[in-house]
Design brief:
Strand order of the largest sheet: 1-2
Structural class: mainly alpha
Low-confidence stretches: none
Largest sheet: 2 strands, antiparallel
Shape: globular
Number of strands: 2
CATH architecture: Orthogonal Bundle
Number of domains: 1
Mean pLDDT: 90
Distance between the termini: 45 Å
Order of helices and strands: HHHHHHHEEHHHHHHH
Helix content: 55-70%
């Protein structure tokens, strides 16, 4: 039997996909875990930020700093458009609006009328040129743990994890500041915070912007070594992000990072184990059925997690309001 899938699964720890989802999950933790916003549209922020970066680099030839600024500005504008009419909504009403907004973004970029700019269903390739132009590493093969990487592959991994660490430290300090105590108060009792004279809607908007910007930057990390595909930012992405933060702890800073690592390693492991069992005719399923079964396993694991440890690995059960 071939057990190479174990090595491939462990290599997910350093994959840009894992890094990007850790950053996007940090943003969702700001929304859901710390502020109590039931945002099901983080995939929309990821798509807007990613397209802002990809279009400005490939279509307009902007330098890296300007494209990153466009990513941030695009995420902020989307947060304002989404938040101004909806942040007075609560719980399931907000979730319905946000998931609809994310789907509107996904279908809009696939519209044939604007496909010369957005690439339509084919997406956008070539977003890595400006980023790789700043790569200072020598052009050799690098052996890091169980993986071997060229200079471009190592460069995005180094930069990606540095961005995640810096973002985590910033959020940690923010949540320990007076601003953080206010947004946590909004999560606990919005009316009590409003009675103290605080503009609850404005604080929610700030939280929505902060988490949305992190989601947009996350997509940049993910698409640089690959390409931007619109169907990668549908409801499945939101499901993945909520699984990650519930796994690690929605009300923590470390939880989304560790949750992303565990999620992608376990997902890859389950895929490898199923492939091994199917190829050796040990279970009566086909390779076509393998993909859905993998997600069934993840869904069952999430159900058990919410039932038996709703606070996640690092979370505090007193703050796990979603379990009520």
């Amino acid at each position: 039997m071939d057990f190479n899938f174990i090595t491939l699964a462990l290599s997910q720890i350093l994959e840009p996909q894992t890094i990007g989802y850790a950053l996007a999950a940090l943003g969702l933790a700001v929304h859901f875990g710390f502020t109590g916003l039931l945002n099901f549209g983080q995939a929309g922020f990821m798509a807007v930020g990613g397209y802002s970066f990809a279009i400005t680099t490939t279509q307009f030839g902007w330098p890296l700093w300007a494209a990153l600024a466009a990513c941030v500005v695009g995420s902020i504008i989307f947060a304002l458009i989404l938040g101004i009419p909806t942040l007075r909504l609560r719980a399931d009403y907000l979730s319905i609006v946000t998931i609809a907004a994310a789907e509107i973004v996904r279908y809009t970029v696939k519209t044939p009328d604007i496909s010369p700019i957005t690439g339509g269903s084919d997406g956008i390739n070539g977003s890595s040129d400006t980023f790789n132009a700043l790569n200072p590493l020598p052009d050799i093969q690098y052996h890091l743990g169980i993986g071997t990487y060229n200079k471009e592959q190592l460069w995005i991994r180094i930069v990606g994890w540095v961005v995640v660490i810096v973002a985590a430290l910033v959020i940690r300090q923010l949540m320990r500041s007076p601003w953080g105590r206010i947004v946590k108060g909004i999560r606990e009792d919005e009316d009590a915070v409003r009675s103290l004279g605080k503009n609850v809607t404005w604080y929610k908007m700030q939280s929505l912007i902060l988490g949305g910007v992190l989601g947009g930057l996350a997509t940049v990390i993910v698409i640089i070594p690959t390409s931007l595909q619109p169907d990668n930012y549908g409801t499945q992405t939101t499901f993945f992000l909520y699984t990650i933060i519930l796994l690690g702890g929605a009300t923590t800073v470390l939880g989304p990072i560790v949750g992303s690592i565990i999620f992608w390693v376990v997902l890859s492991l389950s895929d490898g184990i199923l492939s091994l069992l199917v190829s050796n005719h040990l279970i009566p399923i086909t390779s076509i059925q393998q993909g859905p079964i993998r997600f069934i396993i993840v869904g069952i694991a999430l159900m058990l997690l919410v039932i038996f440890r709703p606070q996640g690995i690092f979370g505090n059960k007193r703050e796990a309001h979603f379990s009520a």
